[in-house]
């Protein structure tokens, strides 16, 4: 995991809101988009950046793709922060 990608992903409020939504349950891009006043391609762009940062992963279930949190990355970020304590 690149810390630069992680911090870039976390720098945007929309992406942080997506992470909050996924904390509660796995969702499709359409379900995520329902929580925002923006186009689906914009949501796809945000999801792509979160995937690039390895903060979310996707899994095809039938015709739908579900997005989930990759909690391992958050554990790695916490370890990095804690070293400065």
In short:
Keywords: DNA-binding, Transcription, Transcription regulation. InterPro entries: ArsR-like_HTH, HTH_ArsR_DNA-bd_dom, HTH_MetalResp_TranReg, SdpR-like_repress, WH-like_DNA-bd_sf, WH_DNA-bd_sf. With 85 residues, this protein is α+β, with helices and mostly antiparallel strands.
Query: What is the gyration radius calculated from CA atoms?
Result: 13 Å
Instruction: Give me the CATH architecture, please.
Output: Orthogonal Bundle
SS class = alpha+beta
- State the CATH class: Mainly Alpha
Named CATH topology: Arc Repressor Mutant, subunit A
Helix and strand pattern: HHEHHEEH
How can the largest sheet be summarized? 3 strands, antiparallel
GO molecular function, one term: DNA binding
Protein name: Transcriptional regulator
Keywords: DNA-binding, Transcription, Transcription regulation
Pfam families: HTH_5 (PF01022)
Protein architecture, described:
By secondary structure, the protein is α+β, with helices and mostly antiparallel strands. Helices cover 59% and strands 16% of the residues. Strands 1-3-2 form a 3-stranded antiparallel sheet. Helix 1 runs antiparallel to helix 4. The protein starts with a helix and ends with a helix. InterPro entries: ArsR-like_HTH, HTH_ArsR_DNA-bd_dom, HTH_MetalResp_TranReg, SdpR-like_repress, WH-like_DNA-bd_sf, WH_DNA-bd_sf. This is Transcriptional regulator.
């Amino acid at each position: 995991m690149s810390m630069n990608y992680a911090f870039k992903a976390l720098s945007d409020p929309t992406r942080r809101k997506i992470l909050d939504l996924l904390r509660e349950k796995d969702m499709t891009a359409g379900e995520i988009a329902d929580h925002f006043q923006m186009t689906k391609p914009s949501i796809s762009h945000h999801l792509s950046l979160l995937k690039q940062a390895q903060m979310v992963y996707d899994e095809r279930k039938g015709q739908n793709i579900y997005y989930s949190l990759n909690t391992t990355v958050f554990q790695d970020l916490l370890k990095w922060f804690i070293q400065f304590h």
